[in-house]
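FAQ: What does the model actually see?

It sees only this:
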Amino acid sequence: MNAVASWWDGVELWIAGLPFVPQVAVVLAVVVPAAAVVAVVADVVLSALFDGRRRVVGKDRPSRVVGKDRPSRVVGEDRPTGAAPAATESRE
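And it is asked to produce this:
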């Protein structure tokens, strides 16, 4: 572990010793790919978690999320229990 810390200190000192433009170039060359890797890993992990949750909960449970394979709303969701259905007007 001490070797890694020593190596990292050397890298930091090397980057700090560079002029501004090369510092930005080196940091971007490392940070942009690292951020892309983190984003891909997060996407895969979260997709797996949500897919697993969907399998456990089941698709027959009403959902409040509007999507292409889900209803636009759950029936009766917008009125209190026992209330009469809202009257609809005809446009004739």
